[in-house]
Amino acid sequence: MIQLLKKDNILIGKNHLLFILCTIFISLPCILLGVEAAGIYVFSSILVFFIVIIGSLLSDREQESTNFLLTLPISRKTLVLSKYTSSFLVALENWAVTSIILFLFTYFLPKQITLSGFNLLLGLVWTIGLLIFTLSILLPVYYAFGNKAMRWVILVPLILASFSSQFFNSDFFQELLIQVTKFSAYSLITIFLVVSLLIYGVSFIVSLLVIKKKDF
């Protein structure tokens, strides 16, 4: 298990610097434009998803790492568990790196941005929740169909985003917003995180069933 995590870390290592540079590049104009810290965490999550996680999965598939690992005395459960664990660790690392970058900006640009404990907590929940929710859909498709299907899955949120303005202006969304505001911020954060983790667990089971039945 540890060796598999090290393998994933090596695969994504070359993308770490690119992610950090892109996060700095995105964060500075966001701060100057008055974007809240939570929004910057969302942007960094999108960056780490495309630069680090997708890059790792594509490299894995191109090098046929999964096929090779299955020739070794490694169970398929361990193989899938290591991928889900490494992806979760990437989400935590993304939060830590983004927090450090924001702390540096608060030192050099104190009038533009401030960080509180709630901002950090919200950033942690957004980072973990958004990434593992997306990965919950992506990883089973990756194990079942490979890179081609994975590319189509990536397009889905982009297509949905084009219709987001209509959804946000709908009566359904306005009613949903009224109901949501009845809960406290901490309650919403907890619910979002717990639901995301549960979905991630279900996704792991689905991926495990897929890879057990698949003949590589």
Automatic annotation (TrEMBL):
Keyword Lyase: no
Transmembrane segments: 16-34, 40-58, 86-108, 120-145, 152-168, 188-211
InterPro entries membership: ABC2_memb-like
Family annotation (Pfam families): ABC2_membrane_5
The keyword Membrane appears for this protein: yes
Keywords associated with the record: Membrane, Transmembrane, Transmembrane helix
Tree of life domain: Bacteria
Protein name listed in UniProt: ABC-2 transporter permease
Species the sequence originates in: Tetragenococcus koreensis
